[in-house]
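Tokenise the fold.
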Amino acid sequence: YKPEKGTVEFDILPYRVTVDTHPEVKKGELWYERTYFAHRNVGPEEKFLVCPRTIGKRCPICEEYQRLKKDPNVEEEVVDALRAKERELFNVVMKGGDGSVMILDISTFLFGRKLEEEIREGDESYAAFAELVGGKTLKVRWESKSMGTQKFVEAGRIDFTDRDDID
């Protein structure tokens, strides 16, 4: 699922964690998102790569980033381009859609932080939004933003509404 400007409603479905390297919960538990780190525009083919630190392994790109960060003669843009970016994955089912589960792959800063803020600031029942029983539908208003020449959307507002239980 690739968000576009406007308001949409969707459910976030939990998944069973199958690895020992999850940063939040233990293997076998249900959880609603998977945080990972990624490097963009790597090499001449400008590949998008998952950072091995995501699964607790060493990353040569991150090691180079740390080395260059200490060099006063290196341009800040060059160093920052190597930094791993924090992203999150969510299983979503769009309201009014065909019922298929899609993956929302998005920067933590564009969605996850707003979701956490709404949960902290709102009704305590919001924290159970991804529960199969008693969960909530998210109504998200995506807003257009830009940084330099890059255009993107971010969650400007998230409301929680009651939904039917999911079996």
About this structure: Helices lie at 60-69, 76-82, 108-121. The mean pLDDT is 93. Residues 118 and 138 are 11 Å apart (CA to CA). Strands lie at 6-13, 15-16, 30-31, 34-42, 47-50, 85-94, 102-107, 136-147, 150-162.
